[in-house]
Every structure is written in structure tokens, then in C-alpha cells.
Amino acid sequence: MARKSSVLQRAAIAVISVIAIYAILNASVSRSLPSSSDLPRQLIREEEEAPIQPKVKVYMYDLPTRFTYGVIEQHAIVRGGGINKSPVDDVTALKYPGHQHMHEWYLFSDLNRPEADRSGSPIARVLDPADADLFYVPVFSSLSLIVNAGRPVEPGSGYSDERMQEGLIDWLERQEWWRRNGGRDHVIPAGDPNALYRILDRVKNAVLLVADFGRLRPDQGSFVKDVVIPYSHRVNIFTGEIGVESRNTLLFFMGNRYRKDGGKVRDLLFQVLEKEGDVTIKHGTQSRENRRAATKGMHTSKFCLNPAGDTPSACRLFDSIVSLCVPVIVSDSIELPFEDVIDYRKFSIFVESNVALKPGFLVKKLRKIGTKKILEYQREMKSVRRYFDYGNPNGAVKEIWRQVSQKLPLIKLMSNRDKRLVLRNSTEPDCSCLCTNQTGLITSI
Question: What digits encode the pLDDT tens for the residues 213-268?
Fold first, then answer.
């Protein structure tokens, strides 16, 4: 009996001990964990304390004026523009002329603004090149190309885009920061498909800002290292509401009928479409009067034809978008800006060239698209058109910088890799110039 009592006592002591230990541990854990009412507050605090993604630091070269404002001056001199044949006292007071590749001016102007005025930008300008992640070369390469456009220049006189290009690369190759990584961490605007054509092989390591890759070899440009940017729209933004009541024309096009290379499709489309009653298709070159006519035509049409030009892209696509005129894209090799955030199929119609040229096919398909679908296209265009507006604070400039900043990890990888490699097989493609699937995927309506 005594033995049984002793066993019971020991068992009771063990149970009490376990309960005591559990109580102590439970109290300790309870104090360390937040209550259910505290959880939202703690999550908010942790979110607030999360590190902010640092901005990519960009140094903009202080180029000699002959590569920037000097180009504006020469453009004005050639066209009269109230400027005599002698240099002006303050070229920085000159106005950059309007044309379809104005990105170079807007990017240059953005970096010249105080940082306090650049709220929300993914990059920050630094004044010491030693602090920079990337280097921006603010050359007006597209404007330089058209200074003498359509105007004969006497040998040995006048402005020369070729001399500008050669002077630029000579200047760059003398810079310590260019030589450090062979230009890989440099960003150069080359929006016009012919911009910098003479020196492309010497700047191809840089991040090029391009409208498309129509004039670039695979080893000169690619999606991997470069950024596709939008043309500057040349028609006025449509400020009305979405709707089709005032859009009586089915399909509109106004532009140069005769182009080279892939743009030859334009003349063939003219032949197919010019006799259709509810289609307006006109030949017209860039002029103030033609821009007014194009603005009116796009603002009063349901669909706008966007065929290839001399290269796959053209400014007409972006004119269509800001006009809320549904783009009908007939350009099998076109590349489009900002496709990581924009799905063009939501507001554009893509048609293979050989299909679009079948008599009656295109207009028949467009006439079948009802008002409800057109309104969906317009609504989507209205939501994304800021991306194509260089004058919008949250528009094209900010988006280009975002795309540029995303190139930094690859630039660092390639720069370090280049310093490490001693020998490479020159017949193999450079991984920084890999292109997308060249077979493509065409979606017809």
C-alpha cells in the first residue's frame, strides 16, 4: 500500500511539472507573438521599413555644343529661321525644331531639370562620373541627319552629318569612362533608322535608343541590350470622348505612297484600297498643312492604316494611338516599345502583308467589327497613350528611363565578363546581341 502511494505521488509531481513547464513556455511565446489585432499594424510597419529600390545613377556628358545646340543652330541657318550665316551669341536659347524623333531633346531636357522636379523617375542624375552606373551621351543624332535633308550642299561648305558623327566618336574614345568598359555602360540616342550609320560599329556596345532594328545588323542592335522607343506623334491629341458617332470614315491613311524595302507594300495597298468608298487613302509628305489634314482624318476615322515605311516602323502608329483611331498594322517585322507593360493586341489589329493585299479582304474584315469592340479598343488606347506622349510627366521619357535602368544588370555582367575573357571564338554570336525568334508569330484578324 505504501509502495502504491509513493508511485502516485511521483506521478502527480511529474504531471504538475509538465503543466508548469507548459505554462511558462506558453507565456513566453505569447509575449513574443503579436495578437491578432496587432498583426495588421506590424505588417504595415514592416512594409514601411522595407528598403526603397535605389535609383540608377546617370551621368550626362557635357558634350561640346557642336553635338547638341550647335545642331539646332545649323538646322535653323539652313532653313533661314531668322538666323544669319554667322554663329549666334547664345545657342542655348535656340528652340529645338519639331520632328518625329524628338526623344533626344526631351531626354536631354529631362536630365537638365533639377532633381526635385524629376519626382518618380527611375534614374537620378549625378554630377560626378565616378558615382555613375550609366553614362548618357546627349547627341542630337536624328536632328543632325535632317539638317540638310532635301537641300544640296556645295562640296567643302555647309553642315555635314558625317563629320558630326566622326567628331563624336573621336571625342568619346578619348574619354576615360568610355574606354573603361568599351562603351557598354553608355546610352546613345539613335532614333532615326539612319542615325549614326557611319559609326555604328564603333558604338554598338552601347545601349542604343532606336525606333526599330530595320537598318541594324544583329551584332549592332538587339532587344537584349537596346531600347525600342516611340516616335514623337505629329498630330494633335484627340481630346474628345470615346465613340464612333463622329468617325464616319472606316479606314484612313495619309503618307508617302512610295517607300523602299518593306515599305513597298504601301503602293500595293493604295492599289487595293483607293477605290473603296468608305476608305480615305492619300499620298502626302510631312508639312504643316498635311499634318492638319492628317489630324482631321485620324480624328474622324474608326481605323487607321499603319503600313511599313523604309523600315518596319513609322510615326503614324503613334499618331493613331493619340487620335484613338484603331491602328491596323501591316508590317510583318515591326518592333514596338514598352511591350513588357503594353499588350498592343488589346487596341491594335495586326494583318500579314500578303493577306492585307488580297482584294476586298481588309475592308470586309474591318466592316465586321462592331461598335462595342471599337469602343473597347478606344478605351484601351486612352489608358495607354500617355506612354507615347513625350510631353506627359508620366509618359514616354519616364518609361524610356525605366527600360534603360533595367539594362544595368546585363551591362555589369558583360563588362566583367569582357575583362575576364582572354580568347573567344569570333564566329559565335555575342550573348549581348542575341535577337528574338526570327520566324515570328503573326496574328491576323
Answer: 999 999 999 999 999 999 999 999 999 999 999 999 999 999 888 776 656 889 99
Vertex 373 angle, CA 367 and 376, to 5°: 140
| Sign of the torsion angle spanned by Cα atoms 177, 179, 185, 186 | positive
Within 13 Å of residue 324, how many CA atoms lie on the same side as its CB?
Answer: 20
Pairing of the two strands 249-255 and 207-210: unpaired
Give the integer Cα–Cα distance in Å for 39 and 304: 54
According to DSSP, residue 343 is labeled -
**What does the alpha-carbon distance between residue 400 and residue 248 come to, in Å, rounded to a whole number?**
36
CA angle, 263 then 266 then 267, to 5°:
115
Q: Taking a C-beta distance cutoff of 8 angstroms, is the pair 251, 278 a contact? A: yes
Cβ(126)–Cβ(214) under 8 Å?
no
Closest by alpha carbon to 182, among 162, 163, 201? 201
Under DSSP, is residue 96 helix (H, G, I), strand (E, B) or coil? coil
Q: H helices of 300-370, where?
A: 316-322, 353-356, 361-367
Strand partners, 186: 135
| Digit-coded pLDDT (tens) for 72-106 | 999 998 877 555 555 667 888 899 998 999 999 99
Place of cell 487607321: 304
HSE (side-chain half, CA atoms, 13 Å) at 127? 4
CA angle (52, 58, 60) in 5-degree steps: 155
Cell of 134: 550609366
**Matching residue, cell 497613350:** 385
State the pTM of this model.
Answer: 0.83
Q: Are 243 and 375 in contact (CB under 8 A)?
A: yes
> CA-CA distances (angstroms) from residue 381 to 248, 305, 372?
19, 16, 14
Q: What are phi and psi of 280, to 5 degrees?
A: -110, 115
Q: What is the pLDDT of residues 53-81, one digit of tens each?
A: 689 999 999 999 999 999 999 999 887 75
Q: Are 314 and 306 in contact (CB under 8 A)?
A: yes
pLDDT band with cut points at 50, 70 and 90 for residue 430:
low
279-283 β-sheet, strand order:
279-283, 249-255, 301-307, 326-330, 349-350
C-alpha cell belonging to residue 265: 507594300
